[in-house]
Amino acid sequence: MKVSIIGTGYVGLTTGVCLGFLGHKVTCLDSDEAKIETLQSGHTPIYEPWLEDLLALAQPNLCFSTSYAQSIPEADVVFIAVGTPPLASGSPDLTYLLSAAQGIGKHLNGGFTVVVNKSTVPIGSGNWVESILRESYEQHHRHQSGGHFAVASNPEFLREGSALNDSLYPDRVVIGADEPRALELLYTLYRPVLDQTFPAPTFLPRPEGLGAVPLISTQLASAELIKYAANAFLALKISYINEIGRLAERVGADITQVANGIGLDKRIGTRFLQPGIGWGGSCFGKDTAALISTAAEYGLVMPIVQAAREINNCQRAHVIEKLLAELKILKGRTVGLLGLAFKPQTDDLRDAPAVEIARQLTERGAKVRAHDPVALPRARREYADSDITFCEDPVELANGADALVLVTEWPQYRDLPWEDLARDMRHPLVLDGRQFLDRPRLTRAGLQYVGILS
Ligand code: UGA
């Protein structure tokens, strides 16, 4: 099938590369010429494990362009995967979605096309996009009949850092479409994933025992709500374990053992019960805010989702409280942050806890240094004006520092030369923001280990 994808962020690019790998003819569109040039040269503008390798395999089926005119008229399916960043009100900014819909409407030809909302968009956006497409089509094709299209919602459930695995081997595929033809086309598009008939790339082996992937076919609004409800639930799970963690800290219980103890109950599940600094990234904060804002439009409050957000903010502040409790005075202290990215295996810094923690520490007069195995170049670009000193390695980070804070649980941080770091620090304190480090190992190295929830 011929597919066009508008937007080459995490979602658009991963979708494009995967569909190209599965044999579809894909054009990825972006208004950013520099991004398109990077992609044309076989590189990716974001760090995502195995993405460049899969891009190389999919290359014969992929095309990168800035021109709607080149690819929209021919496409059977057009995905909209543009950014919907949050506005100050909590609702998402739909400017890019609007301009993508207008651009598609302008270039649609007479054949049937399915336009798919892949970006996380507010409930009801499917109908809104349809009306924009119709308006734009009519404006640019005044004396022609046609404009046969349908809008569908196909929410994305991929996680940064494991985006390709999540796309090729998903738990489910959700398609919301009010028109049966749209569902049929998308079913054909996803058939190799649903039936798991494609040969797995060597670097992304198929999970053992994975059978057919369930397809959930719904009305538009249900698919749109599924996306928000899923992200909000995952966010709740994390906040719940962090709330229990605060109590565990007081009563002297080990929150990691508690999480394991409840998670092995299959009704609860062990995943997304990792306690610590809490969630960051471009999705949970934005989507929980949008859910609350949508509910408010209907006169509803969402106290559970609201509480999850508040707990999450408290977890970041808890880092400062813990440092204060140990160091007593933060003014003039040097704190080294191990990790900047909002989670391991990505260089994404959107709503990264490290950035907020650095801000709060600086506000209190501390000097902040930071290291990250992957996100340093991006941090240097995006936070060039900040007071953070970026360090090339953890040894430089620790030299003369009063405390190190593990913010992102990169696996390599587990095996740092702790004896060397302890020797070079002014005050050998390590605050483990993810309950991730090996406490006995650090203690043996002469460090004072403090867990964020212990
Ligand atoms: C999240 C969802 O997991 C995806 O299903 C969804 O498609 C995506 O948002 C989206 O809407 O685009 P992502 O934000 O990439 O994916 O990453 P997650 O793995 O969900 O992690 C989010 C944050 O939660 C990270 O900061 C992570 O450190 C934190 N987290 C995660 C915890 O604090 N504890 C956990 O147990 C799990």
Account of the protein in words:
The chain is of the alpha/beta class and 454 residues long. It folds into three domains: 2-218, 3-Layer(aba) Sandwich (Rossmann fold); 227-309, N-(1-d-carboxylethyl)-l-norvaline Dehydrogenase, domain 2, CATH 1.10.1040.10; 317-451, NAD(P)-binding Rossmann-like Domain (Rossmann fold), CATH 3.40.50. Helices cover 44% and strands 13% of the residues. α13 links the parallel β9 and β10 (367-371). It is elongated and about 75 Å long. The N and C termini lie far apart (54 Å). The structure holds uridine-5'-diphosphate-glucuronic acid.
Q: Care to give the gist of this entry?
A:
With 454 residues, this protein is of the alpha/beta class. It has 3 domains: 2-218, NAD(P)-binding Rossmann-like Domain (Rossmann fold, 3-Layer(aba) Sandwich), CATH 3.40.50.720; 227-309, Orthogonal Bundle (N-(1-d-carboxylethyl)-l-norvaline Dehydrogenase, domain 2); 317-451, NAD(P)-binding Rossmann-like Domain (Rossmann fold). It has helices spanning 10-21, 33-40, 51-58, 68-71, 95-107, 125-140, 163-168, 180-195, 220-251, 255-263, 284-297, 303-327, 353-363, 376-382, 394-398, 418-424, 439-444, and strands at 2-6, 25-29, 62-65, 77-80, 113-117, 149-153, 173-177, 215-218, 334-338, 367-371, 389-390, 403-406, 429-432, 448-451.
